[in-house]
Amino acid sequence: MATLITMPRLSPTMEEGVLAKWIKKEGDRITPGDIIAEVETDKANMDFPLEEEGVLLRHLVAEGTTVKLGAPVAILGEEGEDISAALAAAATAGPAEPAAPTTEGQKPAPMAASQGPMAASQGPMAASPSPPAAAPKRILASPLARRLAEEAGVDLRQVQGSGPGGRVVKRDIERAMARTVAAPQPAPELAPAPAAPAQVLALSTMRRTIARRLTEAKQTVPHFYLTAEARVDALWRFREELNATLRAAGQEQKVSFNDLVVKSLARALTVVPAAHRSWSEQGLVVGTSVDIGVAVAIDEGLITPVVRGAASKSLGAIAAETRQLAERARQKKLRPEEYQGASFTVSNLGMYGIREFFAIINPPEPGILAVGQIEKRPVVLEGPEGDRIGVERRMTLTLSCDHRVMDGVLGARLLAEVVRGLEQPMLLVL
User: Fold this and answer.
1) Looking at the predicted structure, is the pLDDT value of residue 94 above 70?
2) Mean pLDDT over the full length of the chain
3) Distance in angstroms (rounded) separating the CA atoms of residues 251 and 236
4) To pair with 299 at 20 to 30 A between CA atoms, which of 6, 114, 332, 429?
5) Tell me, which fold does domain 1-129+139-180+197-215 have in CATH?
6) 164 pLDDT more than 70
């Protein structure tokens, strides 16, 4: 019997997904475990596997269509089987809402947390049936397009629809908004001309997710912040010697300062295990493996791939794994287990010239370490002949803490151990 295949939840925060690419064509034989499509979620491009067996009889949505969780996307059955009942069931489930691009010609993307554009749907299930001839003046438009048009003051009657059957979809409204220019208005002499309406860019799935989660975090997690400076002249020399040794051994991999911070934080969590806990309503959850998230900026937003067991890994292994995860994050190929469940996160803006900032915790993690740039600063140096002014390389570190999990003294102990690891880098290889 023909059955409907629906959009599954491919990530914990996923509410909808863009069917980016069909891997299996209509008529292909499916065996359990086969990947039938690639889906863009709010975090990454995910494989869409099937555990059923049969023939993929019909695609119900076109590539580039945004599909809600549980909405039908295909029909599976046996070759030659009557699919009329399945088509009828799919029709009652309602159409999927086509996604709109924010920039012409770009590849569809999620988030999001993320700001990626999405292509409009052209699939058989992407539009409602055409209206009867008795109602020729009815404007075909998706609910989302109607809402955006109302908010932006766009007259739907003046918009040419590009969806199936001439339906006005989200991207048509955005194009109309982009073309909108305020007409000159009669005004008294010397009166300022009216301002053109502001352009509104549609939010991607990733950006919506980032906005929701960080708003919840800032409102529900009692943050407090601790800031310290690390003297990193020794760390600077240590890294140069380490990378020279790696080059001499024929390895192209380099260890970055961020890798050293990740290792120092992982070590600190083993030295101060009371900070390696997370909040739950049932009690404090004690961490086991020290897993450090590394914030990676991508075009669509921010994602934090996780280095598992960082405390027990060498600096070279951390460097190699971090770069591999970051590259897969930019390609949106991370699996959920590769960006979930971190003990702590490191967010580094030092490469952008930022000296100090305060990061927002990603629950249920108990904290996040914000890393500023390394810079030469004038400092007071003590010596046998008294104090003198000198120059040292310094790095500013700010630890955001969940006050439900740790108090000021515990947070200070953790940050002090991070600083100690950076100032005495041999501790990172012991």
Assistant:
1) no
2) 84
3) 20
4) 6
5) OB fold (Dihydrolipoamide Acetyltransferase, E2P) (2.40.50)
6) no
